[in-house]
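Below is a filled-in request sheet from our internal design queue. Each sheet records the structural input a requester submitted and the sequence that came back. We keep these sheets so that new team members can see what a complete request looks like end to end.

REQUESTER: design group, bay 2
PRIORITY: normal
MODE: inverse folding
CHAIN LENGTH: 206
BACKBONE (tokenized):
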């Protein structure tokens, strides 16, 4: 792509670093911004800058939060001894939108993926294991996507908790294999949490 303006080229380059945005789409977005009032670009830049500077991760569940302990963890009406294990905040949002789950969450921040160089130590697994070992949790629900990485992560956590008294369940797979949670429709996802199955049963069937 030949640019007559270095400023334009830089902006397009930065935009094209985003996932799913090729050079052409990046150019379209940048030109769109240039056609809009200048304030719109300023608001965008400010929102992203403030997010990066001020973002916090909940001390308890590691989800993105504006405060030290997120609204879900600090809500006394949530069931405190059931914890749903998810990959990131998108899963929390998807499950919350079903209104079928009243427990707490633990956000791992990804899945174990040797191909991408992500090992257990790169995820919030240690704090989860500690939390369970402290004896305050009655049930864990694995709600990672049904991919090889998701299964590996579930199994790793399961192994870490061997001998610890805690019920471990996995969401029922009305959700197809390889489907990411955020794409499951609310009814299916809600049902799969209610109809969760003991993790050991899931191990036998696979
Ligand atoms: Zn939290």
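RETURNED SEQUENCE:
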């Amino acid at each position: 792509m030949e640019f007559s303006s270095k400023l334009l080229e830089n902006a397009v380059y930065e935009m094209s670093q985003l996932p799913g945005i090729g050079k052409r789409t990046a150019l379209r977005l940048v030109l769109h911004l240039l056609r809009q009032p200048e304030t719109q670009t300023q608001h965008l830049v400010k929102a992203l800058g403030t997010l990066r500077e001020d973002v916090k991760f909940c001390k308890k569940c590691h989800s993105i939060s504006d405060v030290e302990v997120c609204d879900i963890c600090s809500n006394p009406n949530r069931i405190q001894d059931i914890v749903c294990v998810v990959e990131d905040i998108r899963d929390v949002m998807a499950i919350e939108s079903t209104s079928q789950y009243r427990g707490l969450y633990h956000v791992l921040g990804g899945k174990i993926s040797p191909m991408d160089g992500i090992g257990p130590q790169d995820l919030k697994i240690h704090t989860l294991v500690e939390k369970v070992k402290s004896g305050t949790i009655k049930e864990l629900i694995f709600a990672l996507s049904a991919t090889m990485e998701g299964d590996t992560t579930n199994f790793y956590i399961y192994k870490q908790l061997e001998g610890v008294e805690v019920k471990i369940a996995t969401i029922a797979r009305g959700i197809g294999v390889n489907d990411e949670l955020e794409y499951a429709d609310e009814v299916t996802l809600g049902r799969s949490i209610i109809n969760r199955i003991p993790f050991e049963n899931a191990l036998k069937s696979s």
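SHEET NOTES:
- Helices lie at 6-15, 23-35, 38-54, 89-96, 125-133, 148-160, 186-194, 199-205.
- The domain at 69-205 is CATH 3.40.1360.10 (Dna Topoisomerase Vi A Subunit; Chain: A, domain 2).
FILED BY: M.R.
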